[in-house]
# Entry
Amino acid sequence: QVQLVESGGGLVQAGGSLRLSCTASGGIFSIDGTGWYRQAPGKQRELVGFISSNGNTNYLDSVKGRFTISRDNAKNTVYLQMNSLKPDDTAVYYCHSALFDSWGQGTQVTVSS
# Structure
C-alpha cells in the first residue's frame, strides 16, 4: 500500500500562484502514475491532470496552459504548479496513486476575486 500526503494549499488572490506537493511513502513511486483531482462544494470530484511514470502529462481543458504537473522520483513527490488562478479553481485538491488506487487527505485551495 502507499500513503499520500498533500501540502501547499492556501488562500490566494485571483491571478496568483500556488504549488501543491504530493509525497508518497510505502509504494513503488518510480513506476506509479499520479493524478491530481479537485472537488468543489456541491460538485463531483474531477481529474485536473495526470502524470505517468515516464513523465507524460495530460490536463483538464480548463487548466491547460495554467497548471503544470511534474515529478521528482528522488523525493517521491509529484507537484502541481498552478498559475493564473481563478475563483473557479477553488476546491479541495487530492492526489491519487494509479497503481495502488490510494488517495491523499486533500489540501484546500481558495482563490479570492
In short: The chain has a mean pLDDT of 96. Residues 37 and 87 are 16 Å apart (CA to CA). The chain has no helices and eleven strands. The two ends are 40 Å apart (CA to CA).
